[in-house]
Design goal:
By secondary structure, the protein is of the alpha/beta class. It has one domain: Alpha-Beta Barrel (TIM Barrel), CATH 3.20.20. It is built from 12 helices and 13 strands. The strands form 2 sheets. An 8-stranded parallel sheet has the order 2-3-4-5-6-7-8-9. A 5-stranded antiparallel sheet has the order 1-10-11-12-13, with helices on one face. It starts with a strand and ends in a 13-residue tail after the last strand. It binds (4S)-2,6-dioxohexahydropyrimidine-4-carboxylic acid (DOR) and zinc ion (2 copies). The site of one zinc ion has 5 residues, from loops.
């Protein structure tokens, strides 16, 4: 079969870590990893040690990114009681509000019901409100969105019960969309022993039954987007701490794994494009990238190998897995940004803003 042409992939859930945790990743290494993984546009999460919760923090990120990014980058804003005072001022600069309703990396956990009500009621209704809300917490997120009329996007669903809650909320007319992370589609709790700290993430790896339900929800349209939830931590942080940090890198392994699923007949190429380009663009009001595409050889088989990764953390939970489908060339706004297995210099990415 001849090469396939895909639109530049969009990842709406990436942790680039700059400023504040550049030992894990930075704008250069993270966006090189994005390009090497077929993503021409990524949206960056706010939960850094210097969180994106003020207009100044946004300006600082934009300044740091400008001239150094290989893919386009847009930002999400972090929700706290105090950051809600800035919502009107920053709303046109970011793609979504991110509300952390369970404990995970960073300091943005929101537990106080009063604070949550302020956050949900102050965020503009026409704009996406993303939640990290696992299991029981998801019930609360849906309740709040129902009460306040929010456009809710559920991050990294991983459980059968969560799919059921989302289906029910849809029936009740709640404006709700959801994302699945690649690692929940391709790994289960069975891998925890083998991978040790390299399989620790939030939400945790779930059962085979949960995973089967996720694949069904991809097929029946319940799941709207696939994201990498690229959450790099250094090997040392993973190995040498009593409580290793949550998260795994994913930018460079997601497309090859999805192309493998296409090759095996578990996913159609049309659905892959919807989940990684068309739907993210619609849900988050992402601008078009003219003359931008990814050329892949859908039959080329190779083994995932951390030595070939651009991510600064330089490991992957998918080490040694055989995949079918390899990126040959990427064009971003008419520029060749990836060829012969390498990211091309100088960086051609731009900081981007939502279309209204
Ligand atoms: O595993 C995770 N890692 N889950 C999250 O919600 C945050 C992320 C991170 O930033 O490390
Ligand atoms: Zn999360
Ligand atoms: Zn995340």
């Amino acid at each position: 079969m001849k090469n396939l042409i895909l639109p530049g992939l969009i990842d709406t859930h990436v942790h680039l870590r700059e400023p504040g945790a550049t030992q894990k990743e930075d704008f250069e290494t993270g966006t090189k990893a994005a390009i090497a993984g077929g993503y021409t546009l990524i949206l960056d999460m706010p939960n850094n040690p210097e969180p994106t919760i003020t207009p100044d923090a946004i300006s600082k990120k934009v300044k740091l990114a400008t001239g150094r990014i290989y893919s386009d980058v847009g930002l999400h804003f972090g929700a706290t009681r105090e950051s809600s005072n800035f919502f009107k001022e920053i709303v046109d600069k970011v793609f979504a509000l991110k509300v952390y309703m369970n404990h995970t990396t960073g300091t943005l956990l929101q537990k106080d019901p009063k604070a949550l009500q302020i956050i949900f009621s102050s965020w503009p209704k026409e704009k996406v409100l993303m939640v990290h809300a696992e299991d029981e917490t998801l019930k609360n997120a849906i309740k709040l969105a129902k009460k306040n009329g929010n456009k809710l996007h559920i991050c990294h669903i991983s459980l059968k019960e969560e799919i059921e809650l989302i289906k029910q909320a849809k029936k009740e007319g709640v404006q709700i969309t959801c994302e699945v992370s690649c690692h929940h589609l391709f790994l289960t709790e069975k891998e925890r022993k083998r991978l040790g700290p390299f399989a620790i993430m939030r939400p945790p790896l779930s059962t085979k039954t949960d995973q089967d339900t996720l694949w069904e929800a991809i097929a029946d349209g319940t799941i709207n987007t696939i994201a990498s939830d690229h959450a790099p931590h250094t090997r040392e942080e993973k190995l040498n701490t009593i409580q290793p940090p949550n998260g795994v890198p994913g930018l460079e392994t997601t497309l090859p794994l999805l192309l493998t699923a296409v090759n095996e007949g578990r996913l159609t190429i049309e659905r892959l494009i919807e989940l990684t380009n068309t739907n993210p663009r619609k849900i988050f009001n992402i601008p078009e990238q003219p003359d931008t595409f990814v050329e892949v050889d859908p039959n080329l088989r190779y083994t995932l190998d951390a030595r070939h990764l651009y991510t600064k953390c330089a490991w992957t939970p998918f080490e040694g897995i055989k995949v079918t489908g390899k990126i040959k060339r990427i064009i971003l706004r008419g520029n060749v940004v990836f060829k012969n297995g390498s990211v091309v210099k100088p960086p051609k990415g731009q900081v981007i803003y939502p279309v209204n």
